[in-house]
């Protein structure tokens, strides 16, 4: 099988599948990082709104 100028031979399906799976994993990690950052920013904003707790 040939994809563009690549001659991937008989293992083309495995190679392309591996690239696709890797792309999905990386995209998932990026989405998770973005969502986690937003959650951490909200948590920080809540903590900054609270009055500081004094020592006893």
Automatic annotation (TrEMBL):
Keywords: Cell inner membrane, Cell membrane, Cytochrome c-type biogenesis, Membrane, Transmembrane, Transmembrane helix, Transport. The chain crosses the membrane at residues 12-35. InterPro entries: Haem_export_protD_CcmD (IPR007078). GO terms for cellular component: plasma membrane. It is found in: Cell inner membrane. It comes from the Bacteria. GO terms for biological process: cytochrome complex assembly; heme transport. Its main location: membrane. Required for the export of heme to the periplasm for the biogenesis of c-type cytochromes. This is Heme exporter protein D.
